[in-house]
Amino acid sequence: MSSLILYGNCLSGHSYKIRLALVLGKVAHQYRHVALPTPRAERPADFRAASRWDEVPALVVDGVAMVQSNAILQWLAENQGVLAGQPGERQVLREWLSWESNRIGLSLPNLRYARRFEPQPAAVEAWLEQRCRADLDVLDAQLATQDYLLAGGLSLADLSASAYLWWAADAGIDLQAWPQVGAWLARIAAQPGWQHPDALMAPEN
């Protein structure tokens, strides 16, 4: 059996998507919380050795480290069979993971950061909010036709695209305006083993 160690942080949706995939996929692993306020040079040596750019998440599998959340998700799909979709859906899964990294995985985390931790110029926040709303429109339209992003059911695409939406209120986004997204999140939360990121990513967990 492989030995997996996940380095993450309680405020990182990118870390959360990996931990949730491991939990829902019933993949045994260790979780090590990294305190991001700690200066990079003072972070634990094992984390710094694992994370090429001193960022979370980093996943170490049998001593081999990998980084970047959606690249890790693709590895989990291809090598562990975790929520990889139905036969023939692998390309669509890749497309959604790429969309997330450029769209809602950019707009929502940065808007949340600006509104919760470090205010940005009004024009920057307005641009991020407009982009986030457009991304939610895309998700809502897709989810109006099927329960999950892939027709075959719950997949890593859902975990990736939803990761920061559990904190949408921190970004000043009211998801009631996107009812299909709200229903989709409820379906994800009903999965056996699911936990909110505030619980799953807690330092002591």
Write up this protein:
This is Glutathione S-transferase. Residues 86-205 form the GST C-terminal domain. By secondary structure, the chain is an alpha+beta fold. It is built from nine helices and four strands. It has helices at residues 13-24, 45-50, 69-80, 90-102, 104-116, 122-143, 156-162, 179-189, 197-200, and strands at 4-8, 30-33, 58-61, 64-67. A four-stranded mixed sheet has the order 2-1-3-4. Strand 1 (4-8), helix 1 and strand 2 form a beta-alpha-beta unit. The longest helix has 22 residues, at 122-143. The two termini are 22 Å apart. The model has no long low-confidence stretch (mean pLDDT 96).
Which tags fit this structure?
single chain; 205 residues; alpha+beta; four-stranded mixed beta sheet; globular; Glutathione S-transferase; Glutathione-S-Trfase_C-like; Thioredoxin-like_sf; Glutathione_S-Trfase
Q: How many beta-strand segments? A: 4
Radius of gyration of CA atoms, rounded to a whole number: 17 Å
Give the mean pLDDT.
96
Helical content (DSSP H or I, runs of 4+)? 40-55%
Shape: globular
**What fraction strand?**
5-15%
Oligomerization category of the chains in this entry: single chain
H-E string: EHEHEEHHHHHHH
Task: Determine the number of helices (DSSP H or I, runs of at least 4 residues).
Answer: 9
Q: Structural class given helices, strands, pairing?
A: alpha+beta
Domain GST C-terminal: 86-205
Pfam families: GST_C, GST_N_2
Domain GST N-terminal: 2-84
Protein name: Glutathione S-transferase
